Amino acid sequence: MKFFIDTANLAQIQEAHDLGVLDGVTTNPSLMAKEGIKGEAAIIKHYEDICKIVDGDVSAEVISTDFKSIIEEGKKLAAIHPNIVVKVPMIKDGVKAIKWFTDNGIRTNCTLVFSAGQAILAAKAGAAYVSPFIGRIDDTNWDGVELIAQIAQIFSLQGFKTEILAASIRSALHIVKCAEVGADVCTCPLDSILGLLKHPLTDIGLAKFLEDAKKL
Fold it and tell me: What residues are labeled active site?
């Protein structure tokens, strides 16, 4: 399973990269705004900076919602760097745009997916990635990881090549559960990735080793 970091913060991207496990980055307008990135020129420059850090796919999200505007915006984003994947919302014009991008050699990530039916549409249109938001599903008292498992089974049975990118990750446990049920990619905040390092028995064991080492 590939690890993507879900942020536009360059320092966090660098830290995840330095850890040696980073395969890519996902962003969205909210994450850009959080970092104070405003205006087309600044956004393009920021994506260029991200692509200098990580040698992997970087999802750049369109903000348009009609077919023509999604295409125009997506073409600009894809032109920034070969690793850019255009992030398109799961709406009717979004699916149409994904098909257009696929036919014209531009890879896409279909975002805001909350059902297996939506995932099937995205895969049929040729999306490189489909992004189910499991944390938001959990918020509605349904099981987000169960959706990942359902999509993984369908894609396997039907031979879809679209990769399942588990999004809206809330914890290290989410990452493990997504790996168990067949997610191809997990995108999450840095804290969730670092959470995988932690276990109280590791801390206890290391403390004992270090204490014993003083006796040598």
Answer: 87
**Per-residue DSSP letter, 140:** T
Nearest-CA neighbor of 186 among 123, 129, 118? 129
**Cβ-contact 110, 62 below 8 angstroms:** no
Query: What digits encode the pLDDT tens for the residues 60-108?
Result: 999 999 999 999 999 999 999 999 999 999 999 999 999 999 999 999 9
The two structure tokens encoding residue 21: 């496990």
Would you say 186 and 175 are in contact if contact means Cβ atoms under 8 Å apart?
yes
Q: Are 77 and 86 in contact (CB under 8 A)?
A: yes
Residue found by looking up tokens 């067949």 in the block = 182
Question: 112 near 133, Cβ under 8 Å?
Answer: yes
DSSP 167-187: BS--SHHHHHHHHHHT-SEEE
